[in-house]
## 1
Amino acid sequence: MSTIDNDADLRKALKQLNHEQLRETGADFVASVLHLSSDKRVAHAVDVARNSDASDDELLAAYKSARVATVDSRTRCGADCNWEEQAAHFVARASAAMVAPEGVCKAADPSWQVVMSCRMAQNCALIAADDDSINDESENQYCIMNDYLNSH
Amino acid sequence: MSEQFDQGVAELGKQIDAKISSYFSSCVHCGLCAEACLFYTETGDPRYTPIYKLEPMKKLWRQQHTIRGKLAKALGLSKPLQEKDFADWEELVYDSCTLCGRCSMVCPVGNDITYMISKEREGFSRAGYAPEGLKGATQRALEIGSPMGVTLKTVMATLAHVEKDTGLSVPVDQQGADYMTLFSSMEVVNFPEYIESIARIFDAAGVSWTISSKAFEATNSGIQIGNSDNAAEIVGRVVTAAEELGVKYVISPECGHAYTSIRWAGPNLIGRPYRFKVIHILELLEQLKQQGRISFNGKTDEPVTFHDPCQIVRRGGVVQPQRDLLNGVAENFIEMTDHGVMNWCCGGGGGVSANERADELRAKSFDRKRRQIEETGVNTVVTACANCRMMLEDGIEENEMETTVIGLTELIADYLVTDTKDQPEVR
């Protein structure tokens, strides 16, 4: 029975997973903040990541599309930041790292980039809502990971 | 002619100091500055020749400071500046100049053309001939404290996120700390991993640091739009906060023009020396490495190249620290052609990235950077400026390149030894 309740254990658990499993858990992480994005490219990336029959070409196409969505959605330098749009940007960034074929995403730890980008998305949503409550996306992620490990 | 235009022309006249006069007198019309400007080299449009961007100022200089010009004006042979001159030149002064300083490097008589463009912008902005994006950014910087509308509350929310994820405390308003750290709004908004990285690095190195609740913003839109009064107001907030906290150093973040503003322009803007020193984050990281206070637990085997931010390298003088740092965490660091002080700009500096009107020209001018990257044959570009990073990522997507951009400070943090048992002995 998995009982992850901190980042160190979450990292450790992620390191035990193979690339396909990381894509599955990544899809679960992104799905939990997907409501913060209305970009179809991002939703499609989650669908592709969840499809165990997806080919390398499909994964690569979804990754490229999500990467474009990431660049399209971020706040340009000097522009008045819209935090709702910025939340969508971080969801897109998480989706790109999630669906990237092995070795394509150059982040030091793509699975951790998914985790952190989802948290930043939630953070931006709280800022947009002027909500002072603590961002509990990390706790949500521990639950997602526990559920995944306990069901596999 | 409007009153505002008259004020702009008067301001332009005031900006013509001894240096500007000598520069105009010295110009030998060789055209070398054109070959150094990516807006000219990538479009072939002679209007983008740097010295030509100064024609309105040159006209005023002639009429006010040369015998021939004064005579021509008196005889009606030379017309005074018109609103149309400013309207026609606004794009050249703002959209096609990133203040990168490459033209100044090649001028055979030593004219600092970038300095001249900055001075010309003072007149244009006073006359109201400046891009809307830059006007808005400057207004927000003055009213809110950030060109992107980032409030202290937002920064605190981001810091809370960083603290939760790192398990580290981010000190705020720590009286007597050694270092006060500034951020660019871009880091708060788009690259919070930079903030997390320095929290981890400073913790590992035992750096005494703080953030000020009164001045966290490093950027200075007043410098970019060309309004010294606004620029002085913005830099003055940082100076007041640093001196109230009694810090020894202020750290300029991974942002190009922020460094130029706070390190080089700041004391002139406020009219006195600081009671603290300014250090760029790359200089500090290299010092910490030299002192053995940080070390790395490996290197990336991915071949990497480095994009030099103009304001940090060419205008700022920080050239070697980033190379020493990068060699510490990368097995295969390949320099671009024309790297270091002669590097080509990303195309978005000097306020160009905040100017939507300039997007098409900026995209075209990126072709130089595309070629530079492709010549190296690597797929990973490291840089040390949030704005450069955005511009590189934009250009990479537009050109469908298989390239990723990484911030140097984050790369350092990725390979940081955090277990004290693994630290080398401090000498």
## 2
Amino acid sequence: MPSNAQKDALAALYLCMARIRAFENAAEILSQGGVSAYNKTADGSAKVRGPLHLSTGQEGVAAGVCAHLTPRDYLTSTHRGHGHTLAKGADLSRMMCELYGKATGFNGGKGGSMHIADFSVGMLGANGVVAAGLPIAVGAAHAQKLQGRRDITVCFFGDGATNRGPFLEALNWAQVHQLPVLFVCEDNRWSATTASGPMIAGPGASARSESLGIAAHPVDGNDVRAVYEKAAELVQAIRAGQGPRLLHASTYRVKGHVSVDLAAYRDPREVEEALKNDPIQNARRDLLALGSTDAACDQMDQLAQAEVQSAMQAADQAPWPDVSAAYTDIQTTGAGQWF
Amino acid sequence: MVLNTMSYSQAAVLAVQREMEADERVVVMGEDVGRGGIFGQYKGLQQTFGTHRIIDTPISEAAIMGGGVGMALAGMRPVVEMRVVDFALCGMDEIINQAAKNRYMFGGQGRVPLVARMPIGIWDASAAQHSQSLEAWFAHMPGLVVVCPGSVQDNYSLLRAAMQCGDPVVYMEHKTLWGLEGPVDEGVQVPLGKAAVLRPGEHLTMVSWSRQVQVCQTACQQLAALGIQVELIDLRTLWPWDRETVLNSAAKTGHLLVVHEAIQAAGFGAEIAATVAETLGVRVKRLGAPRIPVGYAPVLEAVARVSADQIVAAAQDCLRPVTR
């Protein structure tokens, strides 16, 4: 690729990551006092309530993978799904409205952060249950195959999910039926407040995948270019009908399990070391090497921040859902019979 | 009207066949379905529709159920087979947290038109893990429709209705009704949520469903010999359940007895009895199994069954004047 094209492609990934980071930073502040957990008490003042799982520091994986997808491709996500959703093309303002619980959010205020989704761009939902997205992804991919589509499904999950049964069931199924699905293990090294390493027997996600015959590819998840290039190769193979693949992206969960978790149980040196490998700073460095400028990068940061500010204003002004919405979109058969 | 005599199992095959002919989005997924299913409820369908529509799966209940959710979201209308309700427990997150919640949780962005078949009931000499009736668990869950067909015609008509309705349906055939023979009129439509009055009576309303209806029929004959005329109602759909039919009958007879094969404590009979008592103030009574696991030995298994004699005694008790 000529360097100008490389620069433009990387700039697009940078902007995608900057938007996710700006969103996460704002949501983090907005959520303080929003949930009773980790020795904190909800005080009723927070605009973003409930458990908020931040993907800060993991933006490279979402951006690098989703750059290869179209709205017809499906994506299933985890409880830490803001980045995946934005990278898949969801509208940032409607996402913020959903975090506020407003009627204008993607789910009309029924889901919040943990169930963020935008079906219109193929984003089939974040999920409150670890590993629950895997079978759903496999089913969606099975449908794509039956329908003769060239579209694929991408399934994000964390290292913790590899210890749950649905991980095995879904990978096995995908391989048996040669389904068009890309499994992306976003290995951020932490399962809630427990380090994943000591909880995972054997060498981990890649080895488990390989044992089923699904080729697994390790990548530095904080090097967005590496993710982009490896994902390109895997997505191409999957679209060509070569069956499932697994991308094992090493990254790091910079924040706690939820936004009010200070993660004091971690060795500060581990965090300090991880912060030196920030995906956005890495991309900026690479952009400069390709002839871009700090000013150009700063401009993208500012653009992202302005978009988030505007989304917060929109969310502030948006109405709450009508209480009658508590009784809608549940089921058609028997609607009205609530007692 | 064309009546064909067939089995409960054949009626299910016919229902799935008709829906698959009418709608190419319909697929079946489950263990052993290619060989017709363990009860013959998919017999011949793979030969007719191919392996891509009658899909054999690994023993992976979570993936079958969760995969069904993903398929439905991607525009298909899957029938997922759990073999028996006892095995559906391995896919509970997928049906309760995923299938049932999807539409609401995501603000109506998607729907999950999925039929999960999971036969209930005591399966002779199959002991504690293969003999449960867990319909009340699912009736408790918003988002789900729960159907328990008790006759051959109903298994044909209700299965078709379930596959057409667009909501996630927990469809609970009975493990020992597969050989039941009866007439089927393909033109008969049975709406979900509509009970059937099987025999009229003026003294007592008896509500039941699934295989227990047959035991109730026997009890009703015994009661008739004693001069007690029972109005027997097959509820057929547990959620949404047909309040109108049950309340109208109980208002007429002034007495209600709900009988089910499932454990009595926290069973769905309690819901019906409470609703009738709250609404009409009439005398109500429940009769279900004791809260014990089902044992293997015939004498133990029998303790977990609700017999016609017990139903007769409960009906007489319900009709006895209240002494304070």
## 3
Amino acid sequence: MKDELAKRLVQSLKDAGINFVTYLPETRLSQIVPLIRDDPDMELIAVANESEAITIAAGATLGGKQAAVYMENTGIYTACYPLVTVGKQLGVPLLLVIAYLGGVPDWRNSFLYATIGKHSVPVLDGVGIDHTLLEDGDKLEIKVKDAVRAANSLRGPYALLFAGEFSE
Amino acid sequence: MIRYECLQLLAEKMTDQLVVTSQSGQRIEWSHLSRHEGNLLVGMMGCAIGVATGLALALPHRKVIALDSDGSVLLSLFNLATLGNLRPKNLVVYVFDNGVYSGSRISYPTATSGNTDLAAMAQGAGIKNAQTIRDFEEFKKSGVAALSKNELSFFVCKVEESLLHREIPRPNTDLAENKYTFVRYLERTEEKVIPFIGRG
């Protein structure tokens, strides 16, 4: 991802009200980590597993933060249990910022990632998490804001899948 | 040591603390002992410490308490490493360790009834004040004192297996209802608006 796109993504999160981010880094979107870390209006929390990325972000949301979780799409598989129980069953809004490795629009797709990518959307659909695919910066700010509004309105997780130019 | 007696003691000490419970017998016992609006009865195993950590980070001036079980902590051991690095000063974790999966109805043993020492694991993960409490006198001393300390505390409370939670009534609140009561309580006491809550 080009630096300019990373800056726009972080600014979009901020403009959408995100002020608390849990994360496990990966290869496609990791330029956003130092930008969030250096922003005084955003709290960045490193975790050891995507499951707790979900539960910690959910706790922060209940405490009044507008939280996002940044992770690789492999994290969807790891975090399915808290996504369903805390995210869906308890009904806690969360923005999921997901690097879509191995999806068809992933510019760095290979045999290493293709299977991971193939099942990500069916799993999200299976657990009832709505999602939007972003392949370029067109209307990025609006799409992020729409996703946060959808998460709050639905009272549950909403996923943004990043590929295309974001996987450059 | 009997879990219900420990919870009874804690319930007497509650003022404006936020209490997050995982799914196990103590969730039922706690809801029976405390009707406080600051109770969040998370109905899933392995999620309470994470949710409590998020609350503690979001509200660093409020004391947050997690009531958890050995089975739950074993399900989410990664929490220990994360807590050991974050060290939220306003969080106290009580793990009621009865050494069995009581909910399984056959009381199948957990790893802590074998060779696993959760307090040692927590210390190794970076939680400085992690200790095992083996009797009620020690719980009254160290366990209760942690409520007024400004330090992350992690107590593994060795308790006898008790089936009392099967005899007392389950909480008569829906998960969502409990969540809204909890969040409205926070809105009142924190004098702030929680963004996702509907306002007609």
